[in-house]
């Protein structure tokens, strides 16, 4: 059974699994707290096939600063490295 991390972590089991994989506390918490996190697995489209407006929306959702001045390839890189 997963340890209870309090109200700040919505999915304790997912948080612990991500931490065991070596992700930071911040990134693990962000993923474990994202809505529909468990439903997204394997359903994401390839970033290269998305439009710039789709990439801007994704960048906004994850909080990438300066996204509007980025080119499409810069947006893809920023999303992958976030």
From TrEMBL:
- Residue ranges, compositional bias (Basic and acidic residues): 1-29, 37-52
Q: Where is the Rho termination factor-like N-terminal domain?
A: 50-79
Q: Pfam family of this protein, just one? A: Rho_N
- Tell me the segments the record calls region Disordered: 1-52
SUPFAM superfamilies, alphabetized: Rho N-terminal domain-like (SSF68912)
The domain of life for this entry's organism is Bacteria
Q: What is this protein called?
A: Rho termination factor N-terminal domain-containing protein
């Amino acid at each position: 059974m997963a340890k209870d991390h309090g109200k700040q972590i919505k999915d304790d089991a997912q948080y612990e699994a991500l931490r065991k994989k070596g992700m930071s506390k911040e990134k693990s918490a962000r993923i474990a707290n994202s809505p529909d996190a468990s439903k997204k697995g394997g359903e994401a489209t390839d970033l290269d096939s998305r439009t710039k407006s789709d990439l801007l929306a994704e960048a906004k959702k994850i909080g990438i600063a300066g996204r509007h001045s980025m080119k499409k390839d810069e947006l893809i890189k920023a999303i992958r490295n976030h």
